[in-house]
Amino acid sequence: AQKVTQAQTEISVVEKEDVTLDCVYETRDTTYYLFWYKQPPSGELVFLIRRNSFDEQNEISGRYSWNFQKSTSSFNFTITASQVVDSAVYFCALSEGGTYKYIFGTGTRLKVLA
Amino acid sequence: EAGVAQSPRYKIIEKRQSVAFWCNPISGHATLYWYQQILGQGPKLLIQFQNNGVVDDSQLPKDRFSAERLKGVDSTLKIQPAKLEDSAVYLCASSLKQGLSYEQYFGPGTRLTVT
Prior knowledge:
The complex is a heterodimer. By secondary structure, chain A is mainly β. Chain A has no helices and twelve strands. Chain A has strands at residues 3-5, 10-14, 19-21, 24-26, 32-39, 46-52, 59-61, 64-69, 74-79, 88-96, 102-104, 108-113. In chain A, strands 2, 5, 6, 10, 11 and 12 form a six-stranded mixed beta sheet that branches. In chain A, strands 3-9-8-7 form a four-stranded antiparallel beta sheet, with no helix packed on it. A two-stranded antiparallel ribbon of chain A has the order 1-4. The N and C termini of chain A lie far apart (41 Å). Chain B is mostly beta strands. Chain B has no helices and eleven strands. In chain B, strands 2, 4, 5, 6, 9, 10 and 11 form a seven-stranded mixed beta sheet that branches. A four-stranded antiparallel beta sheet of chain B has the order 1-3-8-7, with no helix packed on it. The chains are: A mainly beta, B mainly beta. Chains A and B meet through strand 5, strand 6 and strand 10 of A and strand 5, strand 9 and strand 10 of B.
């Protein structure tokens, strides 16, 4: 059965620190996609990244980077030099072939303190 | 490009009352989703439409929840009668097509409180 685990419920860091949010997934499919979304206090889920199961290249976008490792079924998200505006709840999600529906983790609340 | 629109943003009702939520997806998006997000949890899919047809409603409590997308654009989600455990944020999302590589874009949600 498909499952997404975000073991970190809440993380607090001081501005300019680096922080990594963990995501571990379970799936029996060989074709699947992984996603990260940001949910600021306004409530809207904002798309950050999509990664398919055949592409294990790490990705960097500005201060954000993602590390996808199929061997450990992990898709971790790192924010470098965190800023107060990064404070939000971050969700990891899995989508499998056949159903296409998203399975979300429980989210990690990130608090960046000035 | 306008995003996914939802209304109302907030709703407070008493248990056993009925309530309806409205969603207008991004123009041209064929696939529309309704999610329920209970406080402290990730969103859970309630129903998925492809144009005006239902693709997946396996997690929709059909004894009290209903949804429609009559013309393949706007959608409404209704709860009748509401229960205390229905208190949650109801998120609408849309994607260009149904498929793994199409990311979903979310609206701001409707926060429902049932007292």
